[in-house]
Amino acid sequence: MLSWPDLREISRLDASAIDASYGFGLAGCWIGEARAAVYATEDALIVTDENFGSCDRITLPIDFGDEGEVESLTHLGAGNVAVGVWTPAGRLTLVVRIIEGHG
């Protein structure tokens, strides 16, 4: 994770530390001041603090198939994150509500 605008490294997370067998996708966003969401390419969001100190896995209710992918994560305010998804069947957007302390 990098700070903005100086791009100083804040923290680093190894995919094996959270059983993300296929690593991370490019999508990620801040959720408020102290939490972030990143995409584990299997099918889940990882909600974490800025130090990757606690990571909660949120399984997405989507059949990604072999080719599906989360294209974007956008914080909408009040703990809501828009998840832009591409699947072979087409594009869709899910809104996920992240409740403090519940991932």
UniProtKB/TrEMBL annotation:
The protein, known as: Uncharacterized protein
